[in-house]
Amino acid sequence: MPFHAVVDGARTGVQVPQHLTRIPINLISTSSDLTNAIVKGKVLRKGPLVSATLHDFILKAVIQEEDSQPSSSAQINAINIVLFGELAKNFSEGVSPGDVVMASGFTVSKSPTASKDKLHPLHLLLSQDANIYCFSQSSSLNPRSAVDSKRSSTVSAEVLNKTKVPKYTYTRLGDLKSGNVVNVYGVVVFFKQPFKSHGTDFCSSLKITDQSNRNVSCTIFCEKLEQHPKIFQIGDIVRMHRVKVKLFNNAITLVNTFGFSVITFDGKSSGTVEPRTSSRTFHFDEQDRKTVEELQKWISTQNVLPASPASVTLSAIQPKAYFDLTCQLLAKATIDTTCTLLRVWDGTRSPNTFVSVDPNDVEGPTSFSREKESFIANILVYDNHSMFAKQLKLGAFLRIYNLRAVPVSSKVRDINRNQAEAGDHLALHLHGGTSFGRGIRVLPENSPDVEKLKRAIAFLTEDVEDFTAEPTDLELHEVWSTPPEFLEDKAETNSTCSTSAEGSCRPQQQQVTLSQLKQSTPGQVYHVRAQLRSYEPSKLHQALKLFCSKCSSIQDIPDDELLATIFSDASKNSENCSLPKWAVPGRIELPSGSTKRAVRFYVSPRLKEEGKPKELLFIRGTTLEETCHLAQGYKNIVPVTSSESCLALMDLSSPFLFRGPRRYYGCKQCSQATLSELPSLDKLLDEKIIAEALGVQLLKFVLLMKLQLQDATDTLEVFLWKHAELFLGVSAEEVAISQEAQSSVHATLESLCPTKGAVGLRPWLDLSLISYWGDGEEGQKQTCYQICSPPISRPSSGQSEHT
DNA sequence: GGTTAGGATTGG
């Protein structure tokens, strides 16, 4: 290795070789024998990393000898050094001004800037044969040095060996020693959302644990909310840098100290490890990913998490219970100076939470349709939470912690109301204070819980018009080799809620038999009770499709055999080609069979500047297998090839992006792909941002099935399409990568339509169907049907009305 | 380079 960080030589085993002889800077001349010479100096200045030629970097720096006292002003003890290639890169990443470095294996030549900068007339040239040893002043590497170090922490020189030695050292919670400043990983077993302290900062209080099974309380003071850990639930994983170990009441606690930073991860494995942070620059490497995955595994195998107030849906609220609620904010109203009303839903039927409010005080819609109202809960939030609630945006996805359901007796009912209507109800309160982690958190749009919530409320938020507005039926029928259809008419959603149909009330109207449905006018939503007679395709992977929301085309997902051919053809095309101006090239060693081989990659200098150069790699010349292998180690991989002597994206028949196990495709028809540099972003890169930057129209994973329903009167073929995710309770994207999601779909279908057993014993389903006019063969009109609700199944008995 | 809090519910 040409670059070494000698932080604690005894510990890391890195030593400056004994055979080298120190040469004072002022004695360096063109006639010096430099074979075994080594110079030592403090880094005075460090220039930027410059991309010089196609495959190279240059970095200039100035070092000054600290321990030599120039006997006369004529003796110069500072010298320019010029580093090339990997060494320049490592120096750029690993060395800060003020660090002491030693250099060997260099050559010298005349310094072109000597007359201007008055430094040494020669400069040192360090290429791949040279060595740099860095004695970092950083406090973050080693807890012991951190305590002694008077210097504020700089993140520097943690690069020792890029692949084997971690940039940061993490202390197990069982090994914490009072007084040390440490970096730690931990699983959250208790937390409070940040709250305003009596001082200048917000305060987060949490308790974490790890494989050493020690629980440690942490207190984080930060002025800005975004600097606080983004904890959504117990079981999340936090990584904290530079926390000080203190003793309080005889117990070890951690408090943030100078240079503190934190990132948070989901405690449940989802295939990819996505750090939650607002920080533009944070270090996250392969080792971090492994650490997080080990903790995720540990959580899943150990019973480490305390029984937390379970996340509960509105329909499952128990009176007197405390619980956490994940929901969407629809409207809010000021009740008084200490209390705000939040109107929310989560897609399940709400208990009666009547709150009287003046419509003039309401922000957002003052009323909803009667059926929508039956899904809405009213929550009163007090004091500190009331203040916070006032700045919440309508439509936001929230998690409300330690919500309480208080039974309210009917004694206080309005005398004018009918007794039955004004019956007992639940009052939902978020009391003041932060005990038991009480608080409200806005969940980001991309969190798995929000994705789940969106699916659950889809049937409430999408009006019937949405179904028919999309010209997708053309595609639906083409996929099934049936006459193409196209929608024109719009259905209406005049609906009333049948209160007699307890639990099955949906925003739609008449319950009809299949026979009646076939004779009724298209353009409406109907409620049916039916059994699932059959479904196709029987093989789930055939139900998974790619959908373009721009041109509404649907296509199959290419199989690996086809993809392998595309990759192999592309890699044959290895001619030299011109690079986009921004691309910084590099090479990665890949194990290929028994031999290693190097493949080319390109990175964006902007991401590099932001401290995450490997966040997005453009890879050239790999096989499909190798690309998948690389995708396990790097967050975002975009395969590229050479096209007409220019670097270009690969054919859009193959995925344009690999993210962990996930593959993303673009629409051939709607994309205008160009290899552009990514815009500067505060947000973490995701498939949407990358697709947009590359001019790719991202294709959505969708599920498309055809079901045959039956009741006593008839059978009916219906599409399961727009609401397939809701119906099957999974996201199509998960089905594409997760065996668990696939099994869940199989289980759902098997429960509705068992392969064995009498047809009559199959469960009866309460379903909402939308019917609409489509264009049939040779311009003929034909009625089509789509499912637009989740299935609510009932035992096969009690269906006598149809049998 | 100083402060805050230091989990623990009954309350509209």
UniProtKB/TrEMBL annotation:
Residues 170-300 form the Telomeric single stranded DNA binding POT1/Cdc13 domain. GO terms for cellular component: nuclear telomere cap complex; nucleoplasm. The keyword Nucleus applies. Pfam families: POT1 (PF02765), POT1_C_insert (PF21375), POT1PC (PF16686). It is found in: Chromosome, Telomere; Nucleus. GO terms for molecular function: G-rich strand telomeric DNA binding; telomerase inhibitor activity. GO terms for biological process: regulation of telomere maintenance via telomerase; telomere capping. The keyword Oxidoreductase does not apply. Its main location: nucleus. Keywords: Chromosome, DNA-binding, Nucleus, Telomere. Belongs to the telombin family. This is Protection of telomeres protein 1.
